[in-house]
Amino acid sequence: MRRYEFRLASVLQLRRAEEQSARGALRATNDELRRRIAARDERAAHYRQVAATPPAASAEGLLAQHQLGELAAAAVLSARRRVTTAAAEAALAQVAWSNASRRVKVLERLDERRRAEHAAAEARAEAAEIDDLVTSRYRLEERER
Q1: Contact status, residue 106 vs residue 19, Cβ threshold 8 Å
Q2: Rounded distance between C-alpha atoms, residue 93 and residue 85, angstroms
Q3: What is the pLDDT of residue 82?
Q4: Up-side HSE of residue 41: CA atoms within 13 Å toward CB?
Q5: What are the helix (H) ranges across the chain?
Q6: Helix 9-52 vs helix 59-144: crossing angle, to nearest 10
Q7: What are the residue ranges spanned by the domains of the chain?
Q8: What is the pLDDT of residues 78-136, one digit of tens each?
Q9: How high is the pLDDT of residue 10?
Q10: Fold topology of 9-114
Q11: Residues 66, 67, 68, 73: is their CA dihedral positive or negative?
Q12: Residues 6+ apart with CB under 8 A from 40
């Protein structure tokens, strides 16, 4: 009985490593996205807090308050842009992982199919060998009679 050997085993192993790498990259980009969303939410909360403060009594205080509000608004816009960028990177990482996973699954299905073909061929060979033994015994018994 021949032992089954998948000829593309090394390719499958490489593809699995690529999938693991892509999964790690996806995890990292999703972590970064969550971090940037949290930073954006912090900036937005700070902006709401600045906007809710009562107006200052002096002109200098009012000007400082206005500048602080503009800085807080700019920080919120910048944080939103960073979230958008991180979301795009996460989407690209998702696509890369999906493609890597699909390549692994294709090779795994091929391996399963070839393994089944091998088992069927072995079963046919064993059946043929048994038939030959039975036939040869029958002929031998017929000659002896």
Answers
A1: no
A2: 12
A3: 98
A4: 6
A5: 9-52, 59-144
A6: 160
A7: 9-114
A8: 999 999 999 999 999 999 999 999 999 999 999 999 999 999 999 999 999 998 888 98
A9: 95
A10: Helix Hairpins (1.10.287)
A11: positive
A12: 76, 79, 80, 82, 83
